[in-house]
Design brief:
Strand content: 15-25%
Largest sheet: 8 strands, antiparallel
Mean pLDDT: 77
Structural class: alpha+beta
Number of strands: 10
Low-confidence stretches: none
Distance between the termini: 172 Å
Shape: elongated
Length: 368
């Protein structure tokens, strides 16, 4: 026992080392086949008093190798060279920008006191004994299954029966007794019939209507001169012309107008022209009738057909005699007029050509 004033000083309490307390481990999950009964938890170790002298765990251990120099660090990985800095930009020539505030200086780091390490090593807590699962129970091997029988051989391919075409319907179908036979369907032919009707209704009038429209109505007038012919104006020629006009009116009483005239040349040739205007439906038969009417008066022979080259115009010429000399009588008829001439001292071909020239001057189309 020590006196009260000579009591030993109590050891200072350990200061805070900055390390957190280690939490207790979580309960481990039970594995498959492990017993659900947990073993009793061992009692915690008794707390050691603070006045117990610590024990060096490394006492008597060979620590001479701790003084060896450390191993050299491994070589560093090669690094890429730093990029070359870009050239400096030229000074800005525009208006000055807004002022840039200098960044605030960062506050100085706060220095915290670091506690020295404890003078003695802290012993680790004792290991916790966990229950060990019992070894798995060996099961007897499963009985082997009998081998499957071999599959049956494949069946031969099924042959398809050839499809027979349906029987053709009988050609001589007859309705049963008490029923009327079905009427046969007639084949339509109306498109061809319609086209034929259109062709007949439009083509025929166009074929026959164009000459009629070009040749009727017309006007007739006697020119004073035609080629080398001169119109005679004496009283005898006028009287003969009036007589011819009356004969034309009697022969063609449906004529709208009549004309007649006598032409002559200095050489003694004479041409007598007469005719009329009006619509004629059959000019070809009218030309033959005109030659027939003049046959007895001029003792005409066989008439010859002259091609005029104009569709709808027909011309006939015949040779005869008048006042003891030979003459040629030619007539030209179309859908709008009839013109007849008696030529002396000319051939039949020349007379037919001259009648065409006279007709072009005598008969002109009506100006509507």
């Amino acid at each position: 026992m020590f006196p009260a004033d000579e009591l030993p000083a109590e050891p200072p309490a350990p200061r805070w080392s900055g390390s957190a307390a280690v939490p207790p481990p979580k309960p481990r999950k039970r594995s498959w086949g492990e017993s659900a009964v947990l073993p009793p938890v061992p009692p915690p170790p008794p707390e050691q008093p603070e006045d117990v002298t610590p024990v060096d765990p490394w006492a008597g251990a060979d620590t001479g190798s701790w003084d060896l120099p450390p191993a050299p660090p491994p070589p560093l990985n090669p690094t890429l060279p730093y990029p070359v800095a870009p050239p400096p930009r030229p000074p800005h020539s525009g208006p000055p920008g807004p002022p840039v505030h200098a960044p605030k200086p960062a506050p100085p780091p706060v220095a915290y006191p670091v506690s020295p390490p404890p003078a003695y090593p802290v012993s680790p807590p004792p290991p916790v004994a966990y229950p060990v699962s019992p070894p798995p129970v060996s099961r007897p091997p499963a009985p082997s299954r009998p081998a499957a029988p071999p599959p049956p051989p494949p069946a031969p391919p099924r042959q398809r029966r050839a499809k027979t075409p349906p029987p053709a319907p009988p050609t001589n179908r007859q309705a049963p007794g008490g029923y009327a036979p079905a009427p046969k369907r007639r084949r339509r032919r109306w498109p061809w019939f319609l086209l034929l009707m259109i062709a007949c209704c439009c083509g025929c009038p166009a074929y026959y209507g164009v000459p009629v429209s070009n040749q009727y109505p017309v006007n007739a007038s006697l020119p004073a001169e035609v080629a080398d012919l001169r119109l005679r104006d004496d009283s005898g020629s006028k009287a003969t012309a009036e007589k011819l006009k009356s004969e034309v009116r009697k022969a063609h009483w449906l004529a709208e107008d009549t004309f007649a005239g006598i032409y002559g040349t200095p050489a003694g040739k004479r041409v007598t022209v007469f005719g009329g205007t009006g619509f004629r439906f059959t000019p070809e038969s009218d030309a033959e009738d005109e030659i027939t009417r003049l046959t007895g008066q001029y003792s005409l022979g066989e008439a010859q057909t002259v091609d005029t080259g104009v569709r709808g115009r027909h011309q006939r010429c015949a040779v005869g005699r008048a006042d003891g000399e030979d003459v040629v009588v030619c007539t030209s008829v179309d859908h709008g007029s009839i013109a007849t001439a008696v030529f002396t001292r000319l051939s039949l071909d020349d007379s037919a050509t001259l009648l065409g020239t006279l007709r072009e001057r005598l008969v002109t189309a009506d100006q509507k």
